[in-house]
Amino acid sequence: MFKSPCKRMGAGFCSLLMAVVFLPMSTSWADSPSPEDAPGEWVSLFNGKNLKGWKQINGTATYEVDNGTVLGTTVEKSPNSFLCTKKHYGNYWLEFEVKLEDDELNSGVQIRSNSTEEYRKGRVHGYQVEISTNGNAGFIYDEARRGWLSTEEARANEVARGAFKPSEWNHYRVYCNGDEIKTWINGIPVADLSDDMTAEGFIGLQVHGVKGDPHWQVRWRNIRIKELQ
Fold it and tell me: Which of 28, 50, 127, 193 is deepest in the core (most CB within 10 A)?
């Protein structure tokens, strides 16, 4: 007759077994920092009225201010387009809200990214926080460089894959400090990456290139940053 481990080994073993079963896969999240604990003030990167402090690099997608949001719209035959901060940032907390008006559109926010004539004649490249409805939202992709940095194993986390809500506003939180890059969507931990290839760069709002002329759209609002001392 089968006997459970708890019956065979006793209550003490059972308690230990339960502790192991419910041990988090990564203890790093339990020790994650909080922007509320960081000194300094939040600074808004978008004033809700115009695109002061931003410039477009690559592509011909359109960016405009619409009802207090940055509205990006795809344009036929355009490669990936990026609306980028003129200022570069290194270590910081970044928060923003984003909404895909069309679920088919893939988008992202560049962090610590760059554009130089020496690298593919100005091609925007660097870390990107994914925005999509396919389950990869919040994970880290290296735009025009190495591809996915969040591993397949990391991107198999079903809780993280369900954090992004289609057709709704989604709150993103991004932490960059040294070689640490962490992300949250709607309060749910998503990416936890260690990578030291690029220490600083601009922040960029991506409108992905698409086939045809669907005029798909993505919106951002409440974009703010707290630089770390």
Answer: 127
Between CA 79 and CA 164 the distance in angstroms is: 25
* Cα separations in angstroms, 87 against 9, 91, 110, 199: 62, 13, 13, 14
For 72-100, the pLDDT digits (tens) are: 999 999 999 999 999 999 999 999 999 99
216 touches 102 (CB < 8 A): yes
Q: Are 72 and 221 in contact (CB under 8 A)?
A: no
Greatest Cα pair distance, the chain, in angstroms, is 74
> First and final CA of the chain: distance in angstroms?
63
DSSP designation for 29: T
| CB neighbourhood size of 91 (10 A) | 16
The dihedral through the CA atoms of 166, 79, 197, 89 has a sign that is negative
Q: Which amino acid is at 48?
A: G
Fold category of 33-227 in CATH:
Jelly Rolls (2.60.120)
Which residue intervals of the chain bear CATH 2.60.120.560? Answer: 33-227
Nearest C-alpha neighbor of 124 from the set 37, 46, 59, 53: 59
Residue 135's CB: how many other CB atoms inside 10 A? 17
**Which pLDDT tens digit goes with each residue over 1-23?**
434 444 444 544 444 433 333 33
Report the predicted TM-score, pTM, of the whole model to 2 decimal places: 0.86
**Residue 143 near residue 113, CB atoms below 8 Å:** yes
Q: Report the amino acid identity of residue 173.
A: R
Burial 102-116 (b: 16+ CB within 10 A, else e): beebbbbbbbbbbbe
Residue 181's nearest CA partner among 110, 98, 96, 99 is: 110
